[in-house]
Design goal:
Blueprint (H helix, E strand, L loop, with lengths): L11 H5 L3 E5 L3 H13 L5 E6 L5 E9 L1
Antiparallel strand pairs: 1-3, 2-3
Length: 66
């Protein structure tokens, strides 16, 4: 599976190389966990999508850049 940002940037290799932390899940609990982790690292988080096209994207989780 390939992973993308909301703007269509492929981040699959960044996740595989360990340069981005990836959290699977779209529920409120997961979002709160990711937000808390980003604050600890003094960073930010963003949504991760799988998509067939920019119009057909599906939210699958969140990520934090290292």
């Amino acid at each position: 599976m390939k992973y993308y940002t909301e703007h269509g940037v492929d981040i699959t290799n960044r996740i595989k190389d360990g340069r981005t932390l990836f959290f699977i899940g779209t529920d409120t609990k997961t979002r709160q966990k990711v937000s808390s982790e980003a604050l600890k690292k003094r960073s930010y988080f963003f949504e991760v999508f799988s998509m067939k096209s920019l119009e057909r994207k599906k939210l699958i989780g969140y990520a934090i850049p290292k």
